[in-house]
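Student: Hello, beginner here. Can you help me understand the protein record under this note? Any guidance would be welcome.
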Amino acid sequence: MNVSLKCHFRQSDFGGNILANFFKFAKEDIVNQSSQPRFSYSSFIIICLFLCLFYQPVKASNLPEKLLTLPITLLSGEVITLKALQGKKSLYLKFWATWCVPCQEQMPHFEQIHQRYQDDLMVIAINLGLNDDLAEVLKSKAKFGLSMPLAIDKSGDLAQAFRLKGTPYHLLFDQQMNLVHIGHKANSVLDNKIALISQQGRVDLMDSLAQPQVFSEPVIKVNDDKLHALYFSATWCDWYLKDARSATAKQCVAGQNMVNDFSQTFNNMQWQGVISRLWTGEPELAQYVKKYKIMHSISIDTSNQLFHHYGIKNLPRLVIVKNGTILFETANFSDQEKLKAQLSLL
């Protein structure tokens, strides 16, 4: 009787080598019809059936191909993709900012993780690139003695693709580039998962609702032959950055006050406040509106599409658009009369 059973195992699978050798020896015994077989024919059949029914092979990544091939350009000039690491190393991405207090507090832990697991785990620190620059990043690198690869998300593509909503932002992937962790805290939950995936242990995968997605279309349509004044800011820009970026904090206060006035003066423009989704929900927006007595339209860019579409990497910023074309933009709110004169020409 001819029996054909197909079960495939990877070398990296649990017990892969043992199982492969078992099938090899059992097959030899059956073919050679040895008088003293190492495994009985019936045992071979039973074990084969059992393994084929209950064995679950390593799955492919639970991420879309577009995300796997998204380039991460390191400060060294090297370009990394999740696809290139697949099957070789697990991956730990951390988004951060130099002015983010929790980010700074977590840096010693971050460096310790890199030092301990670097042989089995690729660790990359991705600076958000929002109100940050290379000089500030290098200062933090020196301050905390960071030795892992560094990147700056200059285009905002990485933050957009991974649906970043606040820093610090931890993303953990197993060796097959399955997303296994998303979080903001450097705690025992993160540490335990890092230890497991570094040893190729089993970790529950994130469900589809938690998988990063890529957005492509802006939420607000501006192709209506009208002038649209888009004021980009954040509810925390004026107070959270007061110490780390005092000049920026002052610009945020001045900018919102000017936009309040201009929205009443320039009726030929459709004024829209676009608020960053970072650390912001409707309660924070309501407090912000009340604080500045805002009368113009304002909303949170919950998908980050507008921030990404217009390449906003510094707050605050005013962008004047007509039919999708940028006619004017500025991040300087130090002279209200000068800005008013510039807007009058549009």
About this structure: DSSP finds twelve helices and twelve strands in the chain. Residues 1-23, 54-58, 208-212, 214-218 have pLDDT under 50 and may be disordered. The first helix runs from residue 16 to 32.
